[in-house]
Design a protein that fits this description.
CATH class: Alpha Beta
Number of helices: 9
Helix content: 55-70%
CATH architecture: 3-Layer(aba) Sandwich
Number of domains: 1
Bound molecules: thymidine-5'-diphosphate
Largest sheet: 5 strands, parallel
Order of helices and strands: EHEHHEHHHEHHEH
Distance between the termini: 10 Å
Strand content: 5-15%
Length: 203
């Protein structure tokens, strides 16, 4: 199988975490060994990042975040993603490089954040869960968890637009990126995710 490293992307509230778990089960049922992971990662930089994102005082400023996400990505690749790929797993990451290209481009511009991330392995397939920012915000509010700094409607809209730029960039680099309609029920979205993965596996 060529498609071994899959990244799931999208704005906050677009359902990535749920779809990663369902896709993993689907691939396992087809006989794949699957490892699921996420960014920010479970490593030391990732843990620091999650805390920084939840800090109401925002002592780690937006201008610092691109470097932390890149540092976490280096650690995540070396410590977790590459070893799992090398021992034959299919790796599915809930967010990866394209999250930085979208979110951090709002602070430093797409060219600079792309340069900062230039040496990281691209996913074999990126699925971009596409959902209206207002619907995403409703879902986030319904979860009732503390919100991080990106979870306000204007930010969701800005990141949604930024992902459009990321799609253009990724395709210009010859990456396989599929936009998936993330509206409707969990099962409906899962069916669309599976269709996109199936097509990539056959390619
Ligand atoms: P998220 O997946 O929302 O984590 P959780 O659901 O556990 O809170 O990720 C945390 C936030 O980090 C999210 O708002 C997106 C943001 N983020 C970036 O800004 N850049 C990145 O490179 C990554 C991986 C995430």
């Amino acid at each position: 199988m060529q498609t071994r490293f899959i990244a799931i992307e999208g704005i906050d509230g677009s359902g990535g975490t749920t779809q990663v778990a369902l896709l993993a089960r689907w691939l396992e049922a087809r006989g794949q060994r699957v490892h699921t992971t996420a960014e920010p990662s479970a490593g030391p930089v990732g843990r620091f990042l999650r805390e920084a994102l939840r800090d109401p005082q925002q002592r780690v400023g937006d201008a610092v975040l691109p470097y932390l996400f890149a540092a976490d990505r280096r650690d995540h690749l070396d410590r977790e993603i590459m070893p799992r790929l090398e021992d034959g797993h299919c790796v599915i990451s809930d967010r990866y490089l394209h999250s930085s290209l979208a979110y951090q481009s709002l602070v430093m511009g797409l060219a600079a954040v792309s340069e900062l991330n230039a040496r990281f392995r691209a996913p074999d397939l990126t699925l971009l869960l596409d959902l209206d920012p207002e619907v995403c915000l409703q879902r986030i509010l319904a979860r009732g968890e503390p919100r991080d700094r990106f979870e306000a409607l204007d930010r969701l809209r800005a990141v949604h637009d930024a992902y459009d730029g990321v799609v253009v960039l990724a395709r210009s680099r010859g990456e396989r990126l599929v936009r998936v309609d993330a509206s409707g029920s969990v099962d409906q979205v899962h069916a669309r995710v599976v269709a996109a993965v199936d097509e990539a596996l056959l390619a």
